[in-house]
Specification:
By secondary structure, this protein is α/β, with parallel strands linked by helices. The chain has a single domain, classed as Spore Coat Polysaccharide Biosynthesis Protein SpsA, Chain A. It has seven helices and eleven strands. The chain binds cytidine-5'-triphosphate (CTP) and magnesium ion.
């Protein structure tokens, strides 16, 4: 039997940059919450077995009500103060699962992740232990220190990361075990933890999609509302 595949929807943040009374994942766009859109994307994917939601403290009941209608919803757990802490909460909840389990960590703030992106991550996970989703940057990206450009990496080598990030559970567990033992750990995303603590593990990057935006600022809520009302563009 193929390894079980778990999607972890990370909704432990409070959306300070969007502002408002509720965490941004509880805002409705296109008639359902951003969190519900994110859960639906994984619940509807044939290769996903379970969807685990990590929710901001104090909002677990709202998350449980949103997750309840989804067939594969496997529970809601309380997140931590940082995204890293929320990921660790999910890994703790997955204690005892086989190392070969495939786990996908997805930002709840990305409501429109497409089936094709999830397919590419799962395909790559057949070969690689760590998989990220990237999109090319239309803007030139430069490194700035103290208001001055210190380097200009070639644009064609630059990629903006999205989620989901996929891992074999044994690999991400090992990376976090090393990270948590490091007093100098700086918060980063899950691929950042693997890159830093397991430098010999290649992180395969597959193609993302501009529609898979992360609702980060108030303008993104407007964009998300618009995207919710439009069919995906093919190019
Ligand atoms: N996240 C999490 N636990 C945290 C912080 C963030 O699970 N302690 C999740 C968020 O809910 C989001 C994803 O990680 O789905 C990406 O984080 P971000 O866009 O920064 O969301 P927030 O932290 O909620 O927003 P802000 O930084 O503006 O407060
Ligand atoms: Mg944040």
């Amino acid at each position: 039997m193929a390894a079980r595949t778990v999607a972890v929807v990370l909704a432990g943040g409070t959306g300070q940059r969007v502002g408002g009374d509720l965490p941004k994942q509880l805002i409705e766009v296109g008639g359902r919450t951003i969190l519900a859109h994110a859960i639906a994307a994984f619940d509807g994917h044939p290769e996903i077995d379970e969807v685990l939601v990590v929710m901001a403290a104090g909002h677990e009941r709202a998350a449980a009500a949103i997750a309840a209608p989804f067939r594969k919803a496997a529970g809601v757990i309380e997140g931590g103060d940082t995204r890293t802490a929320s990921t660790v909460a999910a890994l703790t909840a997955l204690d005892g699962r086989p190392d070969g389990t495939r786990v996908l960590f997805h930002d709840a703030a990305r409501p429109f992740v497409g089936r094709d992106v999830i397919d590419r991550v799962l395909d790559a996970l057949g070969v690689h232990a760590a998989v990220a989703v990237g999109v090319p940057s239309p803007d030139t990206i430069v490194v700035v220190e103290d208001g001055v450009v210190v380097s200009m990496p070639p644009r064609e080598t630059m990629s903006r990361f999205q989620t989901p990030q996929g891992f074999r559970l044994g690999t991400i567990r090992e990376a976090y075990a090393l990270a948590l033992a490091d007093p100098g750990l700086r918060a980063t995303d899950d691929c950042g933890i693997v890159h830093h603590y397991l430098p010999d593990v290649p992180i395969r990057v597959v193609e993302g999609c501009e529609r898979n935006l992360k609702v980060t600022r108030p303008l993104d809520v407007v964009l998300a509302e618009h995207l919710a009302a439009t069919a995906p563009l093919t190019r």
